[in-house]
Write a structure and sequence with these properties.
The complex is a heterodimer of chains A (281) and B (242). Chain A has helices spanning 2-20, 28-38, 48-52, 59-71, 113-123, 132-135, 143-153, 167-181, 191-195, 213-219, 235-245, 256-267; strands at 102-104, 109-111, 201-202, 205-206, 224-226, 231-233, 278-280. By secondary structure, chain A is mostly helical. Chain A has one domain (2-280): Cytochrome c-like domain (Cytochrome Bc1 Complex, Chain D, domain 2). In chain A, the strands form 3 sheets. In chain A, strands 6-5-7 form a 3-stranded mixed beta sheet. A two-stranded antiparallel sheet of chain A has the order 1-2. A two-stranded antiparallel ribbon of chain A has the order 3-4. In chain A, helix 4 packs across helix 7 and helix 8 (167-181) crosses helix 12 (256-267). Chain B folds into 2 domains: 9-56, no CATH class; 76-232, Cytochrome c-like domain (Cytochrome Bc1 Complex, Chain D, domain 2). Classes of the chains: A mainly alpha (281), B mainly alpha (242). Chains A and B meet through helix 5, helix 8, helix 9, strand 3 and helix 11 of A and helix 1, helix 2, helix 3, helix 4 and helix 5 of B.
Chain lengths: 281, 242
């Protein structure tokens, strides 16, 4: 018992010293493994099989395909995405995802990864919003999922750290918090109904608690391969599913309402390492 | 691929109007600018993003005959309980009394008294999560009646393992509490509007919101209270647990 605690303390110390130096991208299975070692959580450990199969995550292929797409010259303008600024300068992908959503000077908006990609694909590569490259958002074979999975995977193991320096970033986060707690509709549900308790279940699924950052980091680690759907899914897809379960209308992807909600949920995982790409039930 | 390249001009115009004009976007629409958003309280901004900035597909029709906009509007109970949950504070007594009084006003007791319905139908209602979901896959009530989804949050039949734990276990509900008139009324009121006894509860207001009919409520009550119902059978498991 004492040895185990000592080992755990050493693990925490090692982790902290690593985090205080330039944190490094880590394989998602290692990030999850360390998280489970440091915290006891029914949510994190609910699927032993998914944990074991992390190294064989099909989303890793999706990320590879996304990498090719990112550097390929495409679209009417025959350009790659190397001039796309995802928050840390043109072409930088490492560590950008854990610092989104953020304010972008060039659009005057707070944007999440998906809306920023749409912006870059249309403004740099010249795609129309109606082109399938931009319009098709769901499924492992969509360009959007491939690109998102590649970019996100380059933040695995880094702590969530969405900037709150710009007043608009703060305003969006706060509005997102209101939305998270906002009960409405024929079932009186809000996101908080199901996601503010620890170890509670809806039917057989253990629910993540937004007030426990070590649980919430896994909850928001999208893209993730959903075993039940045999597809890589995005944050946008998860939000769509939860609004549907809530018996509330569909939120519009890329709308400020959707980005506000994501600003809040990312802020709630602040400091905990991202698990990307993840695998979920 | 080539199909989409057929109208390059159109694509260009569409692309330009959306993307090459971010500065125009920011200058002409009073929407996005920092000044407009940051001047609002978080509550005002949330409502603004939902209702004024096309955050949701507001004109979509709903099963109950209104629009998505109506579905998103909050009534007093929803508004007050949302704010309290967000604040993290405990519910203060005067507010609890108000929410409870609103619930009392909303409850319509069936004419001619409360009687138990058919527990078998009640079981289907308790198990079914169908109904009122909208958006990418809209539930069609003409094909299947909406259910109560009680199992999402409660244990009922002690032999069912796929049950939620957001609400307390209701296994043995009738066996433990009996079927007096007072108990029937109490259970009816909880299903109709549980805020009467549990202000700001997360349990949906099935009667008040009209998601279960009076007949369905009677059937679910039978599932909870009828001695024949699986909910009230003693199992080895519960016998040991007791």
């Amino acid at each position: 018992m004492r040895i185990k605690n000592a080992a755990r303390a050493a693990g925490i110390a090692a982790f902290l010293s690593m985090a205080s130096h330039a944190a490094q991208v880590q394989p998602p299975e290692d990030v999850l493994g360390e998280l489970i070692e440091r915290n006891s959580s029914d949510y994190l450990t609910q699927s032993e099989q998914n944990i074991m199969m992390m190294p064989d995550n099909p989303a890793l292929w999706t990320a590879d395909e996304g990498k090719d797409l990112f550097y390929e010259e495409r679209g009417p303008n025959n350009k790659s995405l190397e001039t796309c600024d995802l928050g840390k300068g043109p072409g930088v992908v490492e560590g950008v995802y854990v610092e989104l959503p953020r304010y972008f000077e060039d659009t005057g908006r707070v944007m999440d990864l998906e809306s920023r990609l749409v912006y870059c694909m249309t403004s740099i590569q010249g795609f129309s919003p109606e082109d399938p490259e931009v319009k098709t958002r769901h499924g492992s074979s969509s360009d959007m999922m491939k690109l998102q999975t590649f970019i996100a995977s380059r933040s695995s193991g880094l702590p969530w750290n969405p900037p709150m320096d710009h007043p608009l970033e703060k305003a969006m986060r706060d509005a997102g918090e209101v939305m998270f707690y906002r009960r409405a509709g024929t079932s009186d549900f809000s996101c908080a109904t199901c996601h503010t308790n620890t170890s509670k279940r809806i039917r057989a699924s253990v629910l993540p608690n937004i007030n426990e950052p070590h649980e919430w980091t896994k909850a928001i680690s999208w893209p993730a391969f959903r075993v039940g759907q045999q597809n890589v899914r995005s944050s946008t897809h998860r939000i769509r599913g939860c609004y549907w379960q809530m018996r509330q209308p569909q939120i519009i992807p890329g709308s400020d309402a959707a980005i506000a909600l994501m600003s809040y949920w990312t802020d709630a995982a602040r400091g905990q390492p991202a698990i990307l790409p993840d695998k979920k039930r | 691929m080539t199909r989409n390249r057929k109208m390059p001009l159109l694509a260009l115009i569409a692309g330009a109007s959306l993307c090459a004009a971010p500065s125009l976007f920011a200058a002409e629409r009073p929407s996005s600018p920092v000044a407009a958003y940051t001047a609002m309280s978080p509550e005002e901004l949330a409502d603004y993003l939902i209702f004024e900035m096309e955050g949701f597909d507001l004109d979509a029709p709903t099963q109950e005959g209104g629009t998505a906009r109506d579905r998103l509007e909050q009534d007093r109970t929803q508004k007050v309980c949302s704010a309290i949950a967000r604040s993290g504070a405990a519910l203060d007594r005067p507010t609890a009394a108000k929410i409870s009084a609103l619930a009392e006003e909303s409850i319509q007791l069936p004419e001619g008294g409360i009687a138990l319905g058919d527990w078998k139908k009640g079981e289907q209602i308790a198990r079914s999560g169908y109904g009122y979901r909208m958006g990418h896959r809209m539930d069609d009530h003409s094909g299947e009646p909406p259910g109560g989804n009680c199992y999402a949050c409660h244990q009922l039949d002690p032999n069912e393992t796929a049950h939620g734990t957001v609400g307390p276990s209701l296994a043995g509900y009738g066996r433990l509490r009996g079927t007096s008139d007072a108990m029937l009324k109490h259970t009816y009121q909880i299903i109709y509007n549980a805020h009467l006894f549990f202000p700001c509860t997360t349990m949906p207001r099935f009667g008040h919101n009209g998601t279960l009919t009076q007949e369905q409520i009677r059937d679910v009550m039978a599932y909870l209270l009828d001695p024949e119902s699986p909910v009230n059978q003693e199992t080895e498991q519960t016998a040991q647990a007791d």
